[in-house]
Amino acid sequence: MNSKNFLDKYFKYIMLFILAIAIIVLAFFPQFIKLFLSNPELNLIIICVFSVGLYKSFTYFLTLEPELVWFKNFLNKKPNNQQPKILLPLYEITKNQKKFLLNSTSLQSILDIMYSRLQDNKETGRYFSNLLIFLGLLGTFLGLLITIHSISGVITDFSVTSTDFTLVFDALKNDLSKPLNGMSIAFSSSFIGLSCSLILSFINQQISLAQNDFYNYIEENLSALTIISNANVASSGDVSPYLLSLLEQNAETINKLENTIINSEKSLSETIKNLQDLSLQFMVTAKRLESSSNVEADLKIMKSQLSNDIKILSKSIKNKKNG
After folding, report:
1. What is the C-alpha end-to-end distance of the chain, expressed in Å?
2. 183 Cβ neighbours under 8 A, 6+ residues apart
3. pTM for the whole thing?
4. What are phi and psi of 227, to 5 degrees?
5. Cα separation of 252 and 246, whole Å?
6. Which residues have C-beta within 8 Å of that of residue 3, sequence separation ≥ 6?
7. Are 112 and 184 in contact (CB under 8 A)?
8. Tens digit of pLDDT for each residue in 17-29?
9. Which of 74, 157, 199, 313 lies in the 20 to 30 Å Cα band around 294?
């Protein structure tokens, strides 16, 4: 699977779909405005919920890219400064290890946690889609309630007391405007709610497919780093699960021992370097001590010469006094 293209592919599908929806809205913009103004309060709530759901869906989709970059750096053994969220268990296991191998139990645990987090994102998208449907149906029932109440009022107030049927029909037409207004509320809210739910469901479907491809990509690459407990022996059915578990534990212990040896070698090299530095310092100190001992010998010679000179000078002074 090409990790570079599968996210871009779904992103293009989403943007093309949004572009098509925008063209349709612009083409029928006056009709949509009338539809929206038939029940602006509830329709505004539906639009706000749709906007929040759209924002959350794009946020979940855009988080896949840095996670994928982190995982590719992990596979290529490049430094990763950013801490992942979906792959946080893998980060916690590998952050202090140079050479990394998984056993099947650890691999399954990491994949289960990652699957659970991806499912949480999908459930959030489904929740917003269902909420939009609920709000649309709420507008439908609200409009029907207004319609039924208005019709009951029309039937109650309807009476033929005038002989002029034109006036009677004009009054009936005016009374029927309220039930028709209620029907417009019902159908407008249902149309907007179901349309927004349809748009959000398509986007969430593409994001769900992208998350599935992301999961499969992580699983395929982590499987290459997994220690398989003698697959040929296991497939023969002659080895008990307990022995297979022991083999996995031994492999994990060997991996930890290898990491310990690597760290010990690093510490040993640092110790040797420190000893070399200390030896160099001892050599410099010895040279300084040697040079200081030579200076001390020279001072002794100078002192003896100076004392001889003083004696000679004192004798000459005595001779002059006696003479």
Report:
1. 120
2. 143, 144, 147
3. 0.61
4. -80, 120
5. 10
6. 68, 72, 217
7. no
8. 999 999 999 999 8
9. 313
